Known about the structure:
Blueprint: H1 6-9, E1 17-22, H2 27-37, E2 44-50, H3 55-62, E3 67-69, H4 76-83, E4 90-93, E5 110-114, H5 129-137, E6 142-149, E7 159-166, H6 173-197, E8 200-203, E9 206-209
Parallel strand pairs: 1-2, 1-4, 2-3, 4-5
Antiparallel strand pairs: 5-6, 6-7, 8-9
Helix pairs in contact: 2-6, 5-6
The protein binds 5-O-phosphono-beta-D-ribofuranosylamine (GRF).
5-O-phosphono-beta-D-ribofuranosylamine binds near residues 25, 27, 28, 181 and 184.
Amino acid sequence: MGLHHPSASMGGGDTPPIAVLVSGGGRTLRNLAAAIDGGRLRARIAAVLASRECPGAAWARQAGLTTIIRPGDLSAGAFQRVIEPFAPALVVLAGYLRKLPMLPGLEHRVVNIHPALLPGFGGRGMYGLRVHEAVLAAGCRVSGCTVHLCDAEYDTGPIVAQACCPVLDDDTPERLAARVFEVECELYPRAISDLLESAFTIDGNRIRRIPA
Ligand code: GRF
């Protein structure tokens, strides 16, 4: 994935604006930018918000995206002030490791991807290789990833989409992480596109598309 051309992920028009939140490597952000540039995701990245200086923020800046660093956990007021000017149709968590306050007006409009099949292997402290170590320790024969809407807890909101991959006999956490990430790269842009383009109802933790 190289640098994307500004006209695609930064382009204007009636393309839905998204805000992408990062804390780490920025692979998810780069994948989304590539999906936009490749025409697989009709969106524009209006802003990248990072919880710290990190490779994801550095890449965003270099790509010419509006990039804001706000360290630590954000209060509702701080989150609102930083996000409001961009009026995102969706707030997209892309390896963001801080808990976000739920803002009125943003309910069901904050989406995350988790590198396992929720509701297993989620919750506070379950990120990065720890997730894959836990999947291997449990003896699972499949793993995968989950796109979900965020609520006030960690990894518990309505599930939008899931995709699976096998767990192999000789897997290490690193090998499994790489296989899951490949699945993420396909699933996340597709699920975000679905959320932006379709109408949904949410009933408890169940999300259902309203037929067009
Ligand atoms: C991804 O594996 C995703 O599942 C999780 O955090 C990781 C992000 O990696 N939410 P990166 O920071 O985008 O490289």
